[in-house]
Specification:
The protein is α/β, with parallel strands linked by helices and 354 residues long. Helix content is 35%, strand content 12%. InterPro entries: Glyco_trans_9, LPS_LOS_Heptosyltrfase. One of its GO terms (biological process) is lipopolysaccharide core region biosynthetic process. GO terms for molecular function: ADP-heptose-lipopolysaccharide heptosyltransferase activity. Pfam families: Glyco_transf_9.
Length: 354
């Protein structure tokens, strides 16, 4: 590990906020390994906004448009602007690995190779980069942590303080509900969200709901009863991270499906309760309390989720009314997990079998 690099390019063009956050420990590890290097990241908005305030990242680039070929063109531009000494990518489509290899840089383009079904994706990235001699052993246990400017922390504190004062709730820890995901197959039923919110409110918790941050991938659950909680004011992802950090400081919990904002909450320091159905919690878990719906589903493929018959259109082979794995996560089970997490936020609580 004696080699030093002046230019590092990291390419993550998978499209999701969660995908970028799973790579974040690797980005920070590469920056620590070569503190004098100029580290650039090519990724998508809105996740790119989290890195624009990160002192470990010298430059953030994004594709110029949303038409086909935009990602490949963005890689060509990044390579033309500065030739990297090291290029690392999670992106395998449209010949992007070949473009990086042709640049003459040292490249790591196979971070998805031969994954074990029970190794978290982010940990897998770290282990492969360590095997390549690019990270230290200490980096293997690094969690995802977003950089929060002081202004975002202060704004988050002001927001949560104001909501607590306005609702005059008892002193029970606040709970934030992330009620949607970018894919229908990952969504918990609306009636379950409303039931959970009602139970938590009856127990004295201030129940908050995430609105769509920066045009991202989720909606608030609605219906004739309205959203299940008090909406957090909208803003970009750094604003939302500041709000999550304020909730965490009060011993609060963030609940949601396998989606970017839930991972953002964990990266901001909050305890999370994750609701996992089509994705395997052993591989995609956030690291707080990760609840797996229908663990014995015969169609789930931990290392090939896009090949599952339910993945793209949320058509569950086991239940025509919706994803059976998400419906299997009962309100009683989720409520118990949230209550345990608020009582013991420093612990990783392991729930009993469903």
């Amino acid at each position: 590990m004696a080699d030093r690099r002046a230019e590092i390019l990291v390419v993550d063009l998978l499209g999701g906020i969660g995908d970028l956050l799973m790579l974040l420990p690797s980005i920070h590890g590469l920056a620590r390994r070569d503190p004098d290097a100029r580290l650039r990241v090519l990724t998508h908005d809105p996740g790119a906004g989290l890195l624009r305030v990160d002192p470990a990242v010298a430059e953030v680039r994004t594709p110029r448009h949303g038409r086909p070929g935009a990602e490949r063109a963005a890689v060509v531009e990044a390579l033309a602007a500065r030739r990297p000494d090291l290029a690392v990518t999670t992106t395998r489509y449209d010949g992007i690995p070949d473009l990086l290899l042709a640049s003459g840089a040292r490249c790591v383009t196979d971070l998805w190779r031969r994954p074990p079904p029970d190794e978290p994706v982010g940990a897998r990235y770290l282990r492969l980069l360590h095997a390549e001699g690019l990270l230290t052993r200490a980096d293997l246990d690094a969690p995802a942590r977003v950089h929060l400017p002081a202004s975002a922390r202060a704004a988050g504190e002001d927001t949560v303080d104001g909501l607590v004062a306005a609702t005059r709730r008892p002193a029970a820890a606040p709970v934030v509900l992330v009620t949607d995901a970018g894919m229908a197959v990952k969504r918990w039923p609306d009636h379950s969200w409303h039931a959970l919110a009602g139970r938590l409110a009856a127990l004295g918790h201030l129940v908050l709901t995430v609105r769509s941050p920066g045009g991202d991938e989720h909606r608030a659950v609605g219906g004739e009863d309205g959203p299940p909680g008090v909406p957090l004011p909208p803003g970009d992802l750094t604003t939302l991270a500041g709000q999550f950090a304020a909730v965490a400081r009060r011993g609060g919990v963030v609940v949601g499906p396998d989606t970017g904002p839930l991972r953002l909450a964990a990266a901001a320091g909050a305890v999370t309760v994750g609701l996992f159905g089509p994705t395997d919690a052993r591989r995609y878990g956030v690291g707080g309390v990760d609840l797996q719906g229908l663990p014995a589903c015969p169609h789930r493929r931990a290392t090939a989720i896009t090949e599952q018959p339910c993945w793209w259109e949320a058509r569950c082979p086991l239940d025509a009314t919706g994803p059976a794995c998400m419906a299997d996560l009962g309100v009683n089970r989720v409520t118990a997990a949230v209550r345990a997490a608020t009582r013991h936020p420093a612990l990783v609580w392991r729930p009993p079998p469903a």
